[in-house]
Amino acid sequence: MLTIYDVIKRPLITEKAVDLKEKENHVLFEVDARANKIQIKEAVEKLFNVKVLDVRTMSVKGKTKRFGTIIGRRDDWKKAIVVLDKDQKLEFV
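Now predict its structure.
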């Protein structure tokens, strides 16, 4: 059983994420690969005291990287796009 602290790993702060946050009030998180939409919604609402309208998830495949003659691969991970109510704000430092 995942706790709310296990579900959300970190917020994603990229140019695209900041643009979505400012224009459409969407917040992006890296989440545990085993978490479902209901668990993600509950974790965000409890941790940040906000009202979540919708959650969209996607699995991101790790890229293949080359280090000289050695070929490695980054880990697969899961991304969640959380849609907040229009009155809600979520700020990261």
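DSSP finds three helices and six strands in the chain.
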